[in-house]
Amino acid sequence: MRPLINPVSNLVHYGHPGIVHSVMVDGTFLMHERKVLALDESALLREAQSVAKRVWTRMLAENPDIAPPPGGLLWLDA
Question: Are 58 and 69 within one domain?
Answer without folding.
Answer: yes
